[in-house]
Amino acid sequence: MFKKILVCVDPYPPNHNLISCAVSLKKLGAEEVVLAHVIVDAPLGLDKMLIAQARPEMERQKQLLAEAGLKASIAMAAGIPAHVLNDLAEKEDVSVIIIGAQGRGLLESITLAGNPLGNVSAKLLHITRRPLLLIPGTLPALESGREMSDLFSHLLYPTDFSDTAEIAFAYLETMVRATQCPITLLHVQDSSRPAPHLGHRFKELQTLDDRRLQRLQGWLTGLGATDVRIDLAQGSPGEEIVARAKAGGCSLILMGTQGKSITREILLGSVAHHVARHATQPVLFIPALQ
Fold first, then answer.
1. 58, 124, 130, 230: most buried, per Cβ within 10 A?
2. Does this model's pTM top 0.85?
């Protein structure tokens, strides 16, 4: 499923969690990694010097990937990071992009004030047509060569039963076939946008949503999932997803970037944006078909 990966690297200092996540994706068929580092637009000549300074660390990370059995290459350039990375992802036809949620080193200076989601990762999440695995800065920092705990020990799949959620579910099916991982299926009935004319049908709607989740549960169990749980909640979807992922000890959140609410016309739905900013677990975002 994720044969070729683009890992967005900032080597000042290196984030070993990104490399560890790339290695974890071998379970899903990963074979090749492109290590990408972008120098923010710099005066002529300075960009070459910064690229030369970054190369030793990039080569070291390339060697770590090779030792883990992954073919690796290096791509470095100067420009506007999100756009350069997106263009590279298209050129290399990668299956997934891995990026840290916060800027580090040089990128740290352009992190949005008061926002845990870095400017580069936020912009890339808006514009990319590729699945994006966002690694939060709240994860314990790994040392070089250490492996991250199993990325697939417990998946949380939030769904609003939209088209994009169905696309994300297809990825979930592949993960189950490859890992037989435990899963929590979550649907949050959005209490922030009540529909007064449907108030008398609340129990009926709750039953309908529960049956939808049960159908998904039965299908995943048939594919080999070891444990599939159902969670039907009420509240603010973004807040509930973040809270339940943390409380449930989930290792990965898998979700679409757009829902079926009034924010659908926006490139990145408000729920996905909230999860990207506040989740303490890695989040795999699946884009809508374009």
1. 124
2. yes
